[in-house]
Amino acid sequence: MKKFMDSHVHLKNRNEEVLNIEGLLKEMDDADIEKVFLMPANSTIEENERMLEQVKGHEERFIPFAFINPYHEDCVERFTDYVLNRCVKGLKLHPVCDAFPADRAYMLDPLLEICDRYRLHCIIHCTSDAPNSSPLQFEKTAKRWPNVTFQMAHMGGCWLSNDAIKVCKRNSNIYLDGSTVSLSAVRRAVSSCPDKFLMGTDIPFYHFEMEKLKMHYATDDPEVFHKITYKNMEDLITERRW
Ligand SMILES: [Zn+2]
Description:
- The protein has 242 residues and is an alpha/beta fold.
- It has one domain: Metal-dependent hydrolases (TIM Barrel), CATH 3.20.20.
- The chain has helices spanning 21-30, 45-55, 75-85, 105-117, 135-144, 161-170, 183-192, 208-218, 222-240, and strands spanning 4-11, 33-40, 62-67, 90-93, 121-125, 149-153, 174-177, 197-198.
- Strands 1-2-3-4-5-6-7-8 form an 8-stranded parallel beta sheet, sandwiched between helices.
- The two termini are 21 Å apart.
- The structure holds zinc ion (ZN).
């Protein structure tokens, strides 16, 4: 039996090393990873299509997320098609790479309305290295859609992790993923929000074993360790009724 679930994985080569679906499956098997939230490398149509083609037949292990740029004119139609016909369970947004504020309602609401209608999960990149993607901006968006679950990827980065933790504590629909985040910030998040913290490795930038080790150092409590590496994500999947 696999013992871990990972909430933040991209289908993307690691430098020169090819990480297609077979390569990812091997890394998952080697690290006892049962299931992951899978995203393309970026928001281009080509990368979304590449991921959705490769993931076919592997839906037991990979939960696919569409990586959408809200500036694309056909983004709502394309996202709806991915959800209805391509097994997509969630939305990935990157306010830094795709250059939009995380709280720009008129751009994001048409996409989030689809998330609301189909009980989807929304992952938004949130770091402190850009002025358009802070935890407080993330919160404004999440508050408008209380029936959508939101995952704050990188939980505010280097400097805004305390804001991220506050925002998570006061909003039942917000989860934190500690991918690329310092151990000290992760320890604070795990002790403050043990039921809403999700392990995330950000493959291909790191390895599963590195993140598992970080989770071991994040808590001494075996029950909390099981929550942050498996049960919280399993409960989220159950709550979303996927
Ligand atoms: Zn990522």
